[in-house]
Every structure is written in structure tokens, then in C-alpha cells.
Prior knowledge:
Chain A is α/β, with parallel strands linked by helices. In chain A, about 40% of the residues lie in helices and about 15% in strands. Chain A is built from twelve helices and eight strands. Chain A has an eight-stranded parallel barrel, surrounded by eight helices. At the A-B interface, helix 3, helix 4, helix 5, helix 6 and helix 7 of A face helix 3, helix 4, helix 5, helix 6 and helix 7 of B.
Amino acid sequence: MIGTTGSGREHFADRLLAAIEKKDAPVCVGVDPRPDMLPEAFGGGIEALRRWCGEVLEIVAPYAAAVKPQIAYFEAWGGGEPFAGLAVYAEVVRLARRLGLLVIGDAKRNDIGSTAEAYAAAHLTGPAAVDAVTVNGYLGADGIRPFVDVARETGRGLFVLARTSNPSAAAIQDFADAGGKTLYEHMAGQIAELGAAEELVGASGYSCVGAVVGATYPAEARRLREIMPRQIFLVPGYGAQGATAADCAAAFHADGSGAIVNAARSVIYAHRREEYKGLRWQQAVEQAVRKFASDIARAVGRRE
Amino acid sequence: MIGTTGSGREHFADRLLAAIEKKDAPVCVGVDPRPDMLPEAFGGGIEALRRWCGEVLEIVAPYAAAVKPQIAYFEAWGGGEPFAGLAVYAEVVRLARRLGLLVIGDAKRNDIGSTAEAYAAAHLTGPAAVDAVTVNGYLGADGIRPFVDVARETGRGLFVLARTSNPSAAAIQDFADAGGKTLYEHMAGQIAELGAAEELVGASGYSCVGAVVGATYPAEARRLREIMPRQIFLVPGYGAQGATAADCAAAFHADGSGAIVNAARSVIYAHRREEYKGLRWQQAVEQAVRKFASDIARAVGRRE
Lengths: 304, 304
């Protein structure tokens, strides 16, 4: 088990690559608990959230290198008790680590100075610490460095938003300068620079400072791969958001390393898909995660 | 009391302007509980957080139109219990409203689609609902609209980051196109457009979609005032971050309306400032908030 879910001192990128190697698939399952999407048997309430998340983790653990709980849904899942769902988020983080999964907390947190330090402490240290957290870099280096500092000290990581996979992202992220350089390329340059210092790079050659690069635009992913050679890319957009495994492959280096593809809805809510009709929801999720893992592994040349 | 802290149905901008009118000062106090900054008597732990926040609110309530709790510090303040500080955040929100203060939740949340809907639900509805929340717009309109929709339905608001007051913000936000238009101006154009629909604008002529505009660059604030005439500006940077009251005045319309200035450290930690030495911490905070309110009121021409 060494190298996959250690105490947090080993370098994040090395741990992530080891986990990908072990599962033989660079995939991550997004855990997005939506009250309107859960199988009917669960009902509502905090206990439903806890049970469903726990079952999903057990099902996907043999196939995925990591899970990415989306904290927004836990933040909203409180009922009468404000933020009660976050206690379950912390349980999910700990259960995932016990199951040998790395955990990427999708929090998109952002602020500056001591406020960013507080977010970094809340998410990369203490009882709800994840292996890596997502960060929004609109505030510039002041808003990213506090996360980098904590990541370096703890053997954890971060993924900074470069290019996202949603339709309207272009209206901001494709904003371009006189030379045709886009904002997302500019942001990528900043991410590469912030993650370049020797003490941030693991034995694998990858930095603990990664980037979020949507899969819906493969040409952009290839360009970003050039700008950020040492960043691990967290790649959303596969499945429900329309990107194919071949689209996702553009985010990887030629040797098949350097990225991890995330799928959420198409896996965790597979019981709602026509092709899995008639199966128990757990069987649908298992078949979907196996197919997801083998699709991606094949597309990036891990399995011929 | 009508118009200041209603049930949430009245338009946010109208409620905020009424609160500013009532206190005769367009000021907001940032509530940033940092364990290393509290007066010594408090010690640590959840009870210290609760008591200190409660006392600060009582002291500033007669002078400020609004408070802006910074959720990062509550998120980090858990000790052994993950996210336990957020229960106190919810209490602070409710206490502030009982004291006649509007509450701006400084959360800088951001995501897309149903995830952004979950954040909007967590922060603009339910037991921890604030009057307005801050939002990071890097993901484009998809990431802002879910907050706008909930704000419209509930009589609440949002402030989208346009230009922030930190030193490295320029490296991202001043990125400019061939015509010299900066990213922050481009973002401001998107904010103005998203907040322009008739049903989003209150009787005061201001939209429920506001903007965060740092006070450290008055020339930029004037330019942004032109691009976003109907947005209320939330203006950080006064005091500890170096902006003067005159700098802040650039964010207002000529009639003295359209913005609210935030100060945090220089008020809530006034007991650490040389000029208030020898006072009890509560007296230091009270003198600092009075000075802050009258400085800003004078600079924007409310008091001659």
C-alpha cells in the first residue's frame, strides 16, 4: 500500500501516479450527491447522504485511483441544521482514504493572504484533509501561494482552474491579448510558474500544483500540455458533459501519464441510464465505472 | 425597521440602501475571526469564536449598515471537529440580522450548473441564508446565473469579483486585449449584462447583482463605475490594506450612492493598534468603527 494513501508526507503527485498505476487507469469518480438523483430507496436526510456515499465509494474503489467529492452538495445538504452535510463530507474523505482511494476535494476555494491560509488549513490539514483541493486563481498568485505552501508542507496538492468544460467558460477564459494569447493560456503560465520550484516537484517529475483542464476542447488541452509540462491535469467533461475518451487523451503526455479524468453523473447515476435499465443501482454503477476506467485506459494507450 | 432586515422578499439593493440611509454611512465591517488576533482573554475553541463574534456584532451594529463574515475562518475553526465553526457562522448570520445588520457572506463560491445551484441554496436560502454572497466569476455566466436566479426569487443579492485589492491581482485581472480592454473591465461588462434585466433592478435603480471593486486603484474604480452604473460596489481595501477614504470615494456615484466600503482588521482588531493602546478591546473596536463610518461618510459627501 505504500505510495497510495500514506500519511501525507510523500509527494502528492507521486502518490497519485502510484494509485493510477495500481488501478491501471487514470480515472477519478466525482461524488456529487444530489437529492433529486439518488436511487429512490434512499429518501432524504443526512443518513441517506451518508449511506449512499459510503456504498458508492465501496463500489468504485477497485477501479478508480481517486474520488472527487463535490463539497457544494454537502454544504447544501443540511435540512434544518446548517451545514450538517459537511460532517458527512469529512466522513466520506476518511472512508475513501481507508479504501485506498486518493481524495480530491472539489471546493474551488479562493481568497488572499490569511484568508486563503484558512481555506488551505481547513481542506489540506486536520480531520477533513483531502489529498488535493481545487482552487480558483482569479485573484492571482497571492490567492494560490497559501495553498501551495500548505501542500508542500503536508505532501498534498492542488488543482488550479485553467480551462473549464462548461459552455460559457469561453466568454471569460478565451479573452485574448494582442498576440492572441488567451486568458486560460496566461493562467496556465502562472500555474506552471507557481509549481515549478524544485521542492514542489516529486520523484515522478510532476508538481504538487496541478491544473483543471476541461476535456471538451482537445486542441486546447494539447496547447496547455505544452505550457504546463509538469502539471497533472484534472480533466472533467467525460460522459455526461459530452467529451469522449479520445478527447480526454489529449490531456496526457505521449507516455500516457500526466492526467486523471473525472466522471461523475455518468457513473454515480448510471442507474438512470437507458443502457443499464433493469439492473440494481449498485450493479449499474459498477458496470459504468468499469467501462469508464477501461475506456480511458485504452484511449491513453495503457491497454492495447 | 421596514426595509432594513425584512424577510428577504424586498429587493436586496433597496434594503441595503435603506440600511445605509439609516446608519448614515455606507460601511460594512468584515468579521474575520483569526485565532492569532483575538484579544487574549478569549483563548481558543468554539466558545471563544461564538463569544467574540457576538460581542463584535453588538459593538458595530449602531454604526455599520452591514457585516461581512469571512466564511474561510469559520470553515477552518473546527479543532478536532471538522467544520464545527460553520455552525457558529450560521449563528452569527442570524444574530446580525436580529441586530438590524445586513449580512454579506464572503464565500467567493463558484461552480457551474447544479453545483452552483447547490452553493446558492446553501448560502442564500435555509437556516444560514445571508442577504448577499460573494461569487468568483472565472467560470463565466454559467457560474453566476444560478446565484442570480436564487437572489431574484428570494430578494437577496450577490457581489461578483471584478477587481480585487491584493498586490498580485493585476497579473491576472489586468490581462488586456488588443484594444487595451482589461480582463476586469471585460468581467465588469459581463456582470453589468447579467444584472441588467428589469426584474433584477430594485426601486432604487440598483441591481441585486453587485460587484467587488478594490479601493486601492481609484482610477480603475471610476472606469468600472461607468461600465457598471447599476451595480452596487462592495469595496474592500480600506484601512489595513492601505486605501484611504478618498480612494474609496471613487467607487460611488456623484450622489454618494452605489457602494459600500468594507473594513475588517483595522476595526475588529483595533485593540492591537498603537492609537488605541490602553483602551479595553471593546472600546478600541467602537472608536475604530465610529471613525471608519464618519471618514467614509465625509469622503463620499454624506456629511459636510
